[in-house]
Design a protein that fits this description.
Elements: E1 11-15, E2 23-27, H1 28-39, H2 43-55, E3 65-67, H3 71-77
Parallel strand pairs: 2-3
Antiparallel strand pairs: 1-2
Helix pairs in contact: 1-2
Length: 79
């Protein structure tokens, strides 16, 4: 499985999809915390980096999944 360097502590599980290889699942909030701690970045800097360099990077059909666990955001997108 493909993984992102330095973010092992943000791995929360393995995602399965019919017809595809399993992929690692990362917790978005934990990813932010890791960059804030390790790089001494602000929350905004961490979010910007993740958005552009990780969420915006397709590395094949086994690209890891990022779990956004904010219930309010989910409810808004389902409207």
């Amino acid at each position: 499985m493909k993984k992102w360097d330095g973010l092992n502590k943000a791995i929360i599980g393995i995602g399965s999809r019919c017809g595809f290889e399993d992929v690692l699942v990362y917790d978005y909030e934990k990813m932010i915390e890791i960059f804030m701690d390790n790089e001494n970045w602000t929350m905004e800097e961490s979010i910007d980096y993740i958005s552009f360099n990780i969420e915006g990077a397709y590395i094949g059909k086994d690209t890891p999944i990022i779990l956004h666990n904010n219930v309010e955001d989910i409810e808004e997108k389902l409207k």
